[in-house]
């Protein structure tokens, strides 16, 4: 018999809100390039973009990307990357409320979940808390169940050590936990350590230009629905309960629909 699930682990960006809503493009383009020009001394937004894209493709986290770029001597002369400064920059300068709105169906469903709810993002903590606040979900993910990149560095998703650190802190085994994610790299890594996986692929038939613009800021990580590492595919997080009503039963069981 399959191990009973106890814990739902949610990625935040492009998982708890739709990839096409415009927020990811807002965060991953001008907001981070401005930071790199003003705080790190890049000569132009284009130079900032080239470096950020190269390292983000490897790490899927801007904080880790800039940390490694600095260690490899790729930042402008004299630049000193401070993850807290980027966290502060994003938390105070992004227009959260313009793009992110509470999703009543998701909110209501998660409030009835019998499982332990955990948020695990490659973004920085203050930023992550602001996203959850704008989505009306902050109280569902209190500090001890919100994991940001600072909590798992020097690792970050998709490194197994990052997942292991989170699972240990919440007292769950990989087999008891379900990872809800939009990133294929993270889905594959979660599956490899024994977690169950749900891919959030983004709403279908919506604003394709916005979706493409957001995916372009995350090179090499677009959803691949036929990947064997995926147990369940949904379009949006608010479809989780309909796709897996077994997780809302008491006791919860793992009974995914056939793929
Ligand atoms: Mg994500």
UniProtKB/TrEMBL annotation:
Top-level lineage group: Eukaryota
Listed InterPro entries: HAD-like_sf, HAD-SF_hydro_IA, HAD_sf, Pyr-5-nucltdase
Region (Disordered): 204-227
Protein name: Pyrimidine 5-nucleotidase
Species the sequence originates in: Emiliania huxleyi (strain CCMP1516)
Lineage: Eukaryota, Haptista, Haptophyta, Prymnesiophyceae, Isochrysidales
């Amino acid at each position: 018999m399959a191990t009973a699930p106890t814990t739902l682990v949610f990625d935040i960006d492009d998982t708890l809100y739709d990839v096409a809503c415009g927020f990811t493009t807002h965060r991953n383009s001008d907001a981070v390039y401005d930071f790199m020009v003003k705080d790190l001394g890049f000569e132009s937004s284009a130079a900032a973009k080239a470096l950020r894209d190269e390292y983000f493709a490897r790490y899927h986290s801007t904080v880790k990307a800039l940390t490694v770029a600095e260690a490899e001597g790729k930042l402008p002369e004299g630049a000193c990357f401070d993850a807290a400064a980027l966290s502060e920059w994003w938390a105070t300068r992004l227009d959260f409320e313009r793009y992110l709105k509470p999703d009543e169906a998701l909110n209501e469903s998660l409030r009835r979940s019998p499982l332990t709810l955990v948020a695990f993002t490659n973004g920085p903590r203050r930023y992550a808390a602001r996203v959850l606040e704008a989505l009306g979900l902050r109280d569902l993910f209190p500090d001890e169940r919100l994991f940001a990149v600072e909590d798992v560095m020097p690792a970050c998703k998709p490194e197994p050590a990052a997942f292991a650190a989170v699972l240990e802190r919440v007292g769950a085994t990989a087999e008891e936990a379900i990872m809800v994610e939009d990133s294929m790299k993270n889905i594959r890594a979660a599956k490899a350590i024994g977690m169950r996986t749900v891919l959030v692929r983004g709403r279908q038939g919506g604003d394709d230009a916005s979706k493409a613009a957001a995916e372009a800021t995350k090179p090499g990580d677009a959803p691949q629905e036929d990947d064997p590492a995926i147990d369940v595919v949904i379009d949006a997080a608010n479809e989780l309960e309909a796709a897996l009503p077994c997780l809302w039963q008491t006791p919860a069981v793992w009974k995914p629909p056939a793929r």
